[in-house]
Write a structure and sequence with these properties.
Blueprint: E1 7-8, H1 11-31, E2 37-43, H2 47-63, E3 66-72, H3 78-90, E4 96-99, H4 109-115, H5 127-135, H6 147-157, E5 167-171, H7 178-185, E6 193-197, H8 204-210, E7 213-216, E8 234-237, E9 241-244, E10 250-253, E11 266-268, H9 274-293
Parallel strand pairs: 1-11, 2-3, 2-4, 5-6, 5-7, 7-8, 8-11
Antiparallel strand pairs: 9-10
Helix pairs in contact: 1-9, 2-9, 6-7, 6-9
This protein binds the ligand Nc1nc2c(c(=O)[nH]1)N[C@@H](CN(C=O)c1ccc(C(=O)N[C@@H](CCC(=O)O)C(=O)O)cc1)CN2.
The ligand Nc1nc2c(c(=O)[nH]1)N[C@@H](CN(C=O)c1ccc(C(=O)N[C@@H](CCC(=O)O)C(=O)O)cc1)CN2 is lined by residues 51-52, 98-101, 123, 147-148, 176, 240, 252, 270-272, 275-276, 278-279.
InterPro entries: Aminoacid_DH-like_N_sf, NAD(P)-bd_dom_sf, THF_DH/CycHdrlase, THF_DH/CycHdrlase_cat_dom, THF_DH/CycHdrlase_NAD-bd_dom
Keywords: Amino-acid biosynthesis, Histidine biosynthesis, Hydrolase, Methionine biosynthesis, Multifunctional enzyme, NADP, One-carbon metabolism, Oxidoreductase, Purine biosynthesis
Domain Tetrahydrofolate dehydrogenase/cyclohydrolase catalytic: 9-123
């Protein structure tokens, strides 16, 4: 049996440390009479989405952020959903909010995200904030960043992993992870070289073998095997799938086969890696936005 070589990028412990720091910053805001408030909009009763939203409210309570919850039926019309978006845009207790994704198929996600007040967009997914991410090559402009990409960069930074000059392969071109993470990693402050692979990529195995860093965000269970990787690669397993464990129970499974730990130098596991960082970065976005509104940051 081979010995696992990879060091673990522990998202749970890192997120816990970030939450402790945010608790201090929320107390400083409270001393100035400012209480940040996060709103969530959940449409339907998908078990995963319901769990994530519940976790966001629990996190808020932990760090002292007020939370506002709007749980809506699966068959809500787009117009009625827009009405809830407008209500949170105007709600003074809500300093930022998110619309939990994915939305049901009959709702146009782009229309909903665009209707949000960009200054209250805690997920950084409003087209204005995605545009700011594109324009912000130096990383100096302050705007909310999508939580999972921000979590990946913060997880690496807090483990002193420098990506300057590294060849990074991102697998998956989704709007919440794949596309924005390339923009973050190519900022001058990170200076990585990024290749964005997707279902149309001709020779994924060749790209994987050359990558110093792999960020797997395809949502295909265990599609990346140990033998696909360059020895010593840094691997972030970000994709989430729920598969039957053989006993009728759904378990969270990442894109990377656990045996990759025998080849990689660093591995962020799934669960326990980037997921907890996504939650912590949402809190960070809410606190940063409240600080900006208070003229602190
Ligand atoms: N509006 C948004 N929708 C979605 C986002 C997002 O950032 N904004 N990301 C994902 C879901 N997500 C947060 O919303 C999320 C995913 C995973 C985790 C997490 O902590 N996962 C755990 C495992 C959880 C489990 O057992 O199910 C882990 O990785 O350890 C938190 C948040 C899609 N939608």
């Amino acid at each position: 049996m081979t010995q696992s070589t990879a060091q673990i990028l522990d998202g749970k412990a890192t997120a816990a440390a970030i939450k402790a720091e945010l608790t201090t910053r929320v107390s400083a805001l409270a001393a100035k009479g400012i209480v940040p408030g996060l709103g969530t909009i959940l449409v339907g009763s998908d078990p995963g989405s319901t769990w994530y939203v519940g976790g966001k409210h629990k996190d808020c309570a932990e760090v002292g952020i007020q939370s506002i919850r709007r749980d809506l039926p699966e068959d809500i019309s787009q117009e009625d959903l827009l009405e809830v978006v407008r209500e949170l845009n105007d709600n003074p207790e809500c300093t930022g909010y998110i619309v939990q994704l994915p939305l049901p198929k009959h709702i146009d996600q782009d229309v909903i995200l665009e209707a949000m007040d960009p200054d209250k967009d805690a997920d950084g997914l409003h087209p204005m904030n995605l545009g700011r991410l594109v324009a912000n090559v130096n990383g100096e402009m302050k705007s909310p960043l999508p939580c999972t990409p921000k979590g990946c960069v913060e997880l690496l930074r807090r483990h002193d992993i420098d990506l300057k000059g590294k060849r990074v392969l991102v697998v998956g071109r989704g709007v919440t992870i794949g596309r924005p993470i390339g923009l973050l990693l190519t900022r001058k402050e990170v200076n990585a070289t990024v290749i964005l692979a997707h279902t149309g990529t001709v020779d994924l195995p060749a790209e994987l073998k050359e990558a110093d860093v792999v960020i797997a965000a395809a949502g295909v269970p265990h599609m990346i095997k140990a033998e696909d990787l360059k020895p010593g690669a840094i691997v972030l397993d970000v994709g989430v799938s729920r598969v039957d464990d053989g006993n009728g129970k759904a378990v969270v499974t990442g894109d990377v086969d656990p045996a990759a730990a025998d080849v990689a130098a660093w591995l962020s596991p799934n669960p326990g890696g980037v997921g907890p960082m996504t939650r912590a970065m949402l809190l960070a976005n809410v606190v940063e936005s409240a600080e900006r509104q208070a003229g602190i940051a």
